[in-house]
Specification:
By secondary structure, this protein is of the alpha+beta class. It has helices at about 10-20, 30-40, 75-80, 80-85, 85-95, 100, 105-110, 120-125, 235-255, and strands at about 5, 25, 45-50, 60, 65-70, 130-135, 140-145, 150, 155, 160-165, 175-180, 190-200, 200-205, 215. The mean pLDDT is about 95.
Length: about 260
């Protein structure tokens, strides 16, 4: 790795100011950033650690789940609040990578990375989650679904940071997330399918087989979806996976507890 400067600001304002350079990058858990730096894909001159900003925490606000961006995935997985009100999130996290990664990786970093193989972006998109984003121009909110433009390409502007994630109450809705991995169970998925049922009306978001989490207008629309080939499978293979896993995900959502 090339030499870099490491800053640990104590306020959000200081962190945003430290990101004013084009070669500066924020670092939350660091699980993705460090791997990309070791591989030579990312060569920042400055890393801005977010760990001292106080952005952790899980709480209920007006019936919504409110999660600080620096909350680890493991903390989210173990939260009794999440298990009771949003059990589909806890179930999904148990299959996400491995516990060593979940102990370090943060929710904000997970969402900001922009890799379509991530598990939570399609699920949170289907659940109607939003993020609060802070930058030099102030705060703004965005649906999780609108964060992604393509592979490793997000709508976050230079210097912007995700500070909080809000997930609406499930109410009487039922939800499921299924994925297919072609190697070990904790490997990147070849396909991810999130389904939220409001009565019999499904909200469907597909990932891993596409270059970003992609909403389907209907079950039938899956046949016309543009599928991407990669190391985890050909487009034809993933198309067949989608046919099978979409039906399974809908069935699992129907049988899920509220």
């Amino acid at each position: 790795m090339r030499p870099f400067e490491l800053l640990e600001p104590r306020t959000l304002r200081e962190a945003i100011a430290a990101l004013d350079s084009e070669s500066a990058r924020p670092m939350s858990g660091g699980t993705a950033v460090m791997l990309m730096m070791k591989a030579g894909v990312l060569r920042p001159s400055r890393l801005v650690s977010l760990r001292r900003l106080g952005l952790e925490g899980i709480q209920i606000k007006e019936n919504s789940l409110s999660v600080g961006a620096m909350t680890t995935l493991r903390a989210l997985e173990k939260s009794e609040v999440v298990r009771k009100g949003w059990p589909v999130i806890a179930r999904t996290l148990r299959t996400l990578s491995n516990v060593r990664v979940r102990n370090v990786a943060t929710l904000g970093g997970h969402l900001a990375h922009g890799d379509p193989h991530m598990d939570l972006p399609p699920l949170l998109s289907a659940l109607g989650a939003t993020v609060t984003i802070a930058g030099a121009a102030g705060e703004r909110t965005s649906p999780v679904e609108a964060l992604y433009r393509g592979y490793l390409d997000t709508t976050l502007k230079s210097g912007e940071l995700i500070t909080r994630v809000e997930v609406p109450a499930l109410g009487r809705k039922r939800a499921a997330y299924l994925k297919c991995t072609t190697r070990s169970a904790d490997d990147w998925p070849a396909l991810g399918v999130a389904v939220v049922l409001d009565g019999d009306k499904p909200t469907i978001v597909v990932s891993a087989a596409t270059d970003k989490p992609t909403r389907l207008a209907s079950v039938e629309a899956a046949e016309g979806l543009q599928i991407e080939s990669d190391l985890h499978g050909s487009a034809a293979y993933k198309k067949q996976l989608l046919r099978v896993y979409l039906k399974r995900a809908i069935d699992e959502a129907r049988n899920a507890s509220h």
